[in-house]
Amino acid sequence: ALGVTIITAAAACIFCSLLPSGQQYWSFIVLTAIFGFIISSAPTVSTPLLVDLLGIQHLNTAFGILTFARGIAALIGPPAAGFILDRYSSNFFLPFYIASALYGVSAFFHLLIWCFNRRVVAQRNGYTVL
User: Fold this and answer.
1) Among 5, 28, 67, 104, which residue's beta carbon has the most beta carbons within 10 A?
2) How far apart are CA 105 and CA 119, in angstroms?
């Protein structure tokens, strides 16, 4: 599940930055469909990811915190993008590039978690990981 999340975040980073380049309606529709397809895997793998990382005993609490964070992001994200667009730049591309950078940061942190988790699992099994 963590590998799917890393790939999803990295691909979302790329396609989110490509969304403003859809100058014609059909190209914007194609890019939006691909972006939506990529992003749809994130909620799907979140439950198995939480179980893999934290264990089934912490699933209720972890899922509640995750749902709370997603709700806050949905509440703050669009007004923040509008504020940035109105206040700092009239460039339509800027909010997309900021979102793309945040997806890149997400992919980086998921990659760090994968490396750390791999090391912990190997140490539990008695192996030495470089």
Assistant:
1) 5
2) 21
32-52 residues labelled b (16+ CB within 10 A) or e (exposed):
eeebeebbebbeebbeebbbe
pTM for the whole thing? Answer: 0.80
- For the ranges 50-54, 87-91, 122-126, which has the lowest average pLDDT? 122-126
Average pLDDT, integer, range 28-43:
89
Please give the structure tokens belonging to residue 130: 């470089």
d(CA 31, CA 35): 6
How does DSSP assign 74-85, residue by residue?
Answer: HHHHHHHHHHHH
Nearest 5°: the CA angle 60, 54, 73 is 60
Judge whether residue 130 has pLDDT over 70.
no
Residues 7, 108: contact at Cβ < 8 Å?
A: no
Dihedral sign computed on CA atoms, order 16, 42, 10, 105: positive
